[in-house]
Amino acid sequence: MTAIGNWDVVSIYKAMGPFARDIVILLLVMFARSAIVALDRYFCFAAARKQTRSFQRLSAAPFRDGDIVEAQRIAERKGQSHLAKIVAAGIRAFTSAEPSLSQSEKIDAARRSAKQAMTLNHAEFNRRLSGLGTIAATAPFVGLLGTVTGIVNAFKGIDMSHASGLSVVAAGIAEALITTALGMLVAIPAVWCFNYFNDVVSEFQVEMESSSRELVTYLTFYSLEKGSQP
Question: Is residue 36 part of a domain?
Fold first, then answer.
């Protein structure tokens, strides 16, 4: 650790010890990683919402008219919509079931396929969020580690110079405070993003469960209607 010349970011970084510099680099890498994950999840969820609204608008008429083949075709074109994936999987299982199966067995197949699609969607939405949560939880402690080393270096400076005063410990204290602040700057947005995205995933999960139940109910009435026709 050397004395600080001008109190700018570059001068403070150059005055840091090797370990503190490594801490700063690690925190910057963690920040970049959390930003990449946050942007990836944001665009993923935004696309899911946009295509879901489009799917709901386009599929209303086919469902109303009992044209499940057209509804399936529309759902398969909206590959980023979590609800469209469930509907497509459920109808596909229902229409492609063996003719020898009863209507209740076909509906059970549709229910299982919809549930499987829901599980896959949930896993996809949660992808990389655990890493974001890890960064949010550990960044303050990484910064604290730099804080400890900065304080140690400050006392080391006092010991080596056999003097006291602010000028002796300034570099060490600055090193400690910079790493502390950087750890917080990394952690705070990561925590916000992690909590927000978890709320979105929970919202999507409720929508998927509701859509799965509605699809099974629709297919049940659809089967009864078809079965009653001569």
Answer: yes
